[in-house]
Structure formats: structure tokens, C-alpha cells
Write a structure and sequence with these properties.
With 219 residues, this protein is of the alpha+beta class. It folds into 3 domains: 59 residues, Winged helix-like DNA-binding domain superfamily/Winged helix DNA-binding domain (Arc Repressor Mutant, subunit A, Orthogonal Bundle); 59 residues, Winged helix-like DNA-binding domain superfamily/Winged helix DNA-binding domain (Arc Repressor Mutant, subunit A), CATH 1.10.10.10; 75 residues, Ferrous iron transport protein A (FeoA) (SH3 type barrels, Roll), CATH 2.30.30. It is 42% helix and 17% strand.
Length: 219
């Protein structure tokens, strides 16, 4: 199916929003895409006519089976390109999102499959998000929000809740990345900050906001 860049951006935005929200409202989509609700309504009608959405006015929208399939392939391309940029071109993990936003629209199946093979069929992108395979399947891991982990627990960072350049820059400054192991030392009631110890480093304190942006698995 041939889709425009704008149509692909809408499909991907709906895919991400419905993971957390269920049905996605016009206003949510407009805020996510920084556009006007009237423009969103027009696009939703077009995508519904292409059988990519289940849409009823005033009730929100969800991707159809075909829409989800298309969204997963866009996400696949995006995350493979992010992996390529970090692993092969030595981009910082805080530099790749916008570049991958452009590259994800190159939809050649042959190119994508050769890229996947060249990279060794990675399961996760540089931010710890699972990469859909050619069939749209993703590896599922049991992860927890760092803010909910009790002191004395050893954990490993497996993903971040946002790919904002500001967050990733802060994590890099604190030497925290995907696969970083840390021991939870103490949680402070006053500001809900968390003291952690990273291997071969001193104890460091991270804010509640930062802790809520980190997802970990138990070691």
C-alpha cells in the first residue's frame, strides 16, 4: 500500500497513542502532531476510507488490523535506522530520532530487509525499544519503572520513557544508558529522589522525574 509521508506520520502517532490511551481523540492526535483538530478530522476520514482506521466521530479512533500492520512496519524502519546510526555511524543516542524520522519513510522492502540482515537482526533499538520483525512481532520483556523499585535491588536499564534530546543528554552526563546495571541504595520521602550506585562509580542521586523516565529489569 502506497502512503504519503503525512499518512504514515498519522498512523505511527495513533499507534503510539493507543498503546497508552486506548481510543485516541482528535485533540490528542492534534497535540501530538502539532496541527489543528480540523486538519486531523480530514486525515482521519482519508485513512478510514483506506481501511486503516476504525473511526467514529466523537468516539475516538483506533487502527484497524491493516492499519496496525502498516504502523508496525513504519516503527520497524524507524528503529532499524536508529540502530544503524548509533551502531555503524557512531551517532549519539540523543541525535538519531529526527534523522530516523526522515529515513523511516523510505519504504523499499528490499532495502529494509538488507539493512536488518546487515545489522544482525537486532531485537532492540538504542533506546531499548523492541524492533518489530518482518511479521510485526516484537520481543516482550518484563520491565518495571525505576521509581517503583525498592532499595537493595540490583537492576539493569532496558528502556527509556522518552527520546527527548534533553533527557538523553542528562542520562549520558550521568553515565546511564541501556544495559547499565545499578543498585538502588535509598529513596527519599522529601522529594522522591533515588540514590543509586553504578558499578565502579560513586553513589549518585537522581530526581523523581528522571527515575520515572527509566525502565529496568531485575538482575
Amino acid at each position: 500500500m502506497n502512503l504519503t509521508v503525512a499518512e504514515e506520520n498519522y498512523i505511527k502517532a495513533i499507534f503510539h497513542l493507543q498503546q497508552a490511551e486506548g481510543n485516541v481523540s482528535t485533540n490528542q492526535l492534534a497535540a501530538s502532531l502539532h496541527t489543528k483538530p480540523a486538519s486531523v478530522t480530514d486525515m482521519l476520514k482519508k485513512l478510514t476510507n483506506k481501511n486503516l482506521l476504525n473511526y467514529k466521530p466523537y468516539q475516538g479512533v483506533r487502527l484497524s488490523k491493516e492499519g496496525k500492520k502498516q504502523a508496525l512496519m513504519i516503527v520497524r524502519r524507524h528503529r532499524l535506522w536508529e540502530f544503524f546510526l548509533v551502531d555503524k555511524l557512531q551517532f549519539g543516542w540523543d541525535e538519531v530520532h529526527e534523522v530516523a524520522e526522515e529515513l523511516e519513510h523510505v519504504s523499499s522492502k528490499k532495502l529494509v530487509e538488507k539493512l536488518d540482515s546487515f545489522l544482525g537482526h537486532p531485537k532492540f533499538d538504542p533506546h531499548g525499544d523492541p524492533i518489530p520483525d518482518v511479521h510485526g512481532n516484537m520481543v516482550a520483556i518484563r520491565q518495571f519503572n525505576l521509581i517503583d523499585i525498592q532499595p537493595g535491588t540490583l537492576v539493569e536499564v532496558c528502556s527509556v520513557g522518552s527520546q527527548s534530546a534533553e533527557l538523553l543528554e542528562l542520562l549520558r552526563h550521568k553515565n546511564i544508558g541501556i544495559s547499565t546495571e545499578m543498585l538502588i541504595m535509598k529513596k527519599f520521602d522529601f522529594d522522591h529522589s533515588v540514590e543509586i550506585k553504578i558499578k565502579n562509580s560513586q553513589h549518585i542521586n537522581i530526581s523523581q522525574q528522571l527515575a520515572q523516565a527509566l525502565f529496568v529489569k531485575l538482575v
